Amino acid sequence: MNKETKLRIHIITAKAVLKFGSEAWVLKKREEQRLEGAQMKFLRHLLGITKLDNEKDQCIRQKTGAQNTVKEIKQYQKKWLQHVQRMDTNRLPKQALQYKPKGRRNRGRPRKRWRDQLRLEDQGTGNTPNPSRNMMMMTNTNAHRSSCKVTVIFVRL
Question: Are 27 and 70 spatial neighbours (Cβ–Cβ below 8 Å)?
Fold first, then answer.
């Protein structure tokens, strides 16, 4: 098989498996490193490059045209959040997002939550999440649809 066919197989199968269920994940640094490592292992094998060749990950991605899996997962999570915010209040995902437990947490450092992860990413980029603005935008579906960019990818084997 040539490289293009192998890359298409990677995009269709391996990436789909790596990203399955990722809309609800809380990614820690170790998990991000493992995802990137799995992707780079496949891409290195595809190009016939070993770790001893000391090729940078960025160079390998440029040669193959592959995107960073972790960045794709984070974009997917943001899209999922917007989707859940547009849902009716009686839907289970919306109720789970708005749920605030009563009582006290256990001792020690609090566990990293999905909502906290998205908030930290927005602070890193300078975007501050504004729920009222998001809700106003999401209630007008026509405005939301016009703000979305649709990308269609056709893969032919």
Answer: yes
